[in-house]
Amino acid sequence: MSKLKNVVVLDEKVLKAIANGEKKFDNRTNNPGRPVNKKSARYKRLAKQAFYADVNSKFVSGKAFKLKNQASEYHYTKNADGKGGALFNGIGSYVCNIDYIGRTKVTGFTYVLNKRVNVEVNLKEVQFVK
Question: What is the CA radius of gyration of the chain?
């Protein structure tokens, strides 16, 4: 008679915990057991949402970035009260105030010759510096 290697003896408490979903009986987490269709519209939408969330979190954390067609670097700094902030260039000079940070768009303003100029940054076109 040979010994079985992968035999697990479960008692009544463990079986009830598995049935109630309190305990997992295998090592899979969020695995439906089928391959992922990377060409599906849902997969593309989820990947796009994850990209936008990643870019937004990098921007809010103050990581340095460049705009698409510009060589200068910028970074965002929050105000002490947590509302809004300011955009600074690579050497620390003030560029503009930030009043709204959305999922894919950041809006702000600055004053040039006593006139208010609106500034808009598209987070889709931002390239973060490594």
Answer: 25
Give me the chain's average pLDDT, please: 85
Q: Which two tokens stand for residue 114?
A: 């006593």
Q: pTM higher than 0.85 for the full model?
A: no
Using an 8 Å Cβ cutoff, are 105 and 123 in contact? yes
Question: DSSP states of 4-55 as a string?
Answer: PSS-----HHHHHHHHTTSS-SSS-SS--SS---TTSHHHHHHHHHHHHHHH
- DSSP 3-state assignment of 58? helix
Q: Is 65 helix (H, G, I), strand (E, B) or coil?
A: strand
- As separate numbers, helices (DSSP H) first and strands (DSSP E) second, the chain gives 2, 7
* 8-state DSSP, 3: P
CA–CA separation, 125 and 103 (whole Å): 13
